[in-house]
Amino acid sequence: MHSSLNLLLICLVAAVPACRSQRPTVQLEADPFVAPGSVVKIRCNVQGNPRPVTTWKENGQPLQPSDRFAFEDHGEYHLLVISNVQQSDGHRKFECHAANENGAAMAARSFAVVSDGLAGGVAGQSATVDLQGPTHVPAGGTVTLLCVVQGQPRPTVTWTENGLPVAANARIRVEDDGGINHRLIVSGVKPEDSFKKYLCRASNRHGAAMAVRSFVVQQNYFGNFAGFGF
Question: In 68, 101, 126, 214, which residue has its Cα 20 to 30 A from 173's Cα atom?
Answer without folding.
Answer: 126
